[in-house]
Amino acid sequence: MSTDELDTQREFKAKLGAQYSFIADDKGVLTKLYGVKMPLLNVAKRKTFVVGQDGKIKAMLSGSDAMDPGLALNQCVLP
């Protein structure tokens, strides 16, 4: 999930070659619900959530770990 626009997310996903869904939250609705929206700004703190097909959070990375997409992708398991 990112407050980046959808086109930016698509480019990032393609660059990684990721087979998983990414969420573009340019309005900041989900980042607020997840408690990671920075006050007064429409940007999120550096957190990465891996959400399973059942809707449950499988992993959460923060800080520099959240900036390494490989760590999040390693948490994803295809059925």
Task: Describe, in plain words, how this protein is organized in 3D.
The protein is built from three helices and two strands. It has helices at residues 6-16, 29-33, 69-74, and strands at 47-51, 57-62. It is α+β, with helices and mostly antiparallel strands. It is globular, with a radius of gyration of 12 Å. A two-stranded antiparallel ribbon has the order 1-2. The chain is 28% helix and 14% strand.
In a few lines, what is going on in this structure?
The chain is an alpha+beta fold and 79 residues long. The protein has 3 helices and 2 strands; from the N terminus they run H-H-E-E-H.
Across the major sheet, the strand order is: 1-2
**E-strand count:** 2
Element order: H for helix, E for strand: HHEEH
Class of secondary structure makeup: alpha+beta
Properties at a glance:
single chain, 79 residues, 3 helices, alpha+beta, two-stranded antiparallel ribbon
Write the layout of secondary structure elements.
Elements: H1 6-16, H2 29-33, E1 47-51, E2 57-62, H3 69-74
Antiparallel strand pairs: 1-2
